[in-house]
Amino acid sequence: MTTTALPRSQDMPADWRDFLALTKPRVMSLVVFTGLCGLLAAPVHVHPVLGFTAILCIALGAGAAAALNMWHEADIDALMKRTAGRPIPSGRMNRQAALHFGVGLGIFSVLLMGLATNWFAAGVLAASILFYVLVYTIWLKRRTAQNIVIGGAAGAFPPMIGWAAATGDVTLLPVLLFALIFLWTPPHFWALSLFVRSDYAAAGVPMLPVVSGPKVTRQHILLYTLPMAAAAVAPWPLGLAGALYGAAAILLSLVFLVLAVQVLGNKATEPAGMRPEKRLFAYSILYLFAIFGALVADRWLIG
């Protein structure tokens, strides 16, 4: 893999905006939302202060995992256009500061979750952080094109954590929500990686479009969309959610499937011709927000 020397950090310490950037706040918003929905969908009442604390812990844990991801991947971030401006590769922060920040934030989030809610939820939160850092970032990311498939489990934990914070356990519904995000992650990231393939290739990251090409990637996007849609709809026929959720899940998943078919039919190999991929990537984010929002609406409006 190609490597590059990182620029030396400035003498002045990084400011708060750099530490915030380490937490990947845009990614964190989806993590926090699915965690909140998991908590709100639970069949118990949670005191607002404890609920807020639980979601804060999920946000801090996600931020810790993101910071440790940037700490470990600073060398490849420096080689990709879309990540070269991050705090470490740009020279605004040294790697040691990012490491200390990520570890400290992670430990604090787990301890606070355990003290405020329950230690089972804290354990699931700790597992999610360790999985993202050790399994996805350190072990899989640079070794296999299946990095997103297996590593996608890391982003699937938040609704389970929210549910566990409220109830102290995990039942079938949060497991299905975990499965939904797990199966959603590959088509979401492969759509992105198709039109930033040159970035991953330059950094030596074996994403599926780099290793197997656009055609195979488009086929895999459709293949993963089918079980994802099944996982999304499943809570309704299983009696875990009502008709409002069922109708929303069917409609939203059908649109996702149509976009995935359009991606499959696209033959472009350059980003300029990948409008279907860009549409699918943008819609995939809306899809997850809408699916989880529908679940909470079904729980609170219909009961």
From TrEMBL:
Location within or outside the cell: Cell membrane
Major location (coarse): membrane
Membrane-spanning parts: 27-46, 52-72, 93-113, 119-139, 160-183, 244-264, 280-302
Catalytic activity: heme b + (2E,6E)-farnesyl diphosphate + H2O = Fe(II)-heme o + diphosphate
Key word rRNA-binding present: no
Record-listed E.C. numbers: 2.5.1.141
Pathway the protein takes part in: Porphyrin-containing compound metabolism; heme O biosynthesis; heme O from protoheme: step 1/1
Membrane topology (UniProt): Multi-pass membrane protein
Domain of life according to the entry: Bacteria
Keywords from the UniProt entry: Cell membrane, Heme biosynthesis, Membrane, Transferase, Transmembrane, Transmembrane helix
One term of GO molecular function: protoheme IX farnesyltransferase activity
Enzyme's top EC category: transferase
InterPro entries: Protohaem_IX_farnesylTrfase, UbiA_prenyltransferase, UbiA_prenylTrfase_CS, UbiA_sf
Entry-linked NCBIfam families: cyoE_ctaB (TIGR01473), PRK04375.1-2 (NF003349)
Function: Converts heme B (protoheme IX) to heme O by substitution of the vinyl group on carbon 2 of heme B porphyrin ring with a hydroxyethyl farnesyl side group.
Additional remarks: Carbon 2 of the heme B porphyrin ring is defined according to the Fischer nomenclature.
UniProt-listed PANTHER family: 4-HYDROXYBENZOATE SOLANESYLTRANSFERASE (PTHR43448:SF7), PROTOHEME IX FARNESYLTRANSFERASE, MITOCHONDRIAL (PTHR43448)
Family affiliation: Belongs to the UbiA prenyltransferase family. Protoheme IX farnesyltransferase subfamily.
The name this protein goes by in its record: Protoheme IX farnesyltransferase
Species of origin: Sphingosinicella rhizophila
Organism classification: Bacteria, Pseudomonadati, Pseudomonadota, Alphaproteobacteria, Sphingomonadales
Gene it is expressed from: ctaB
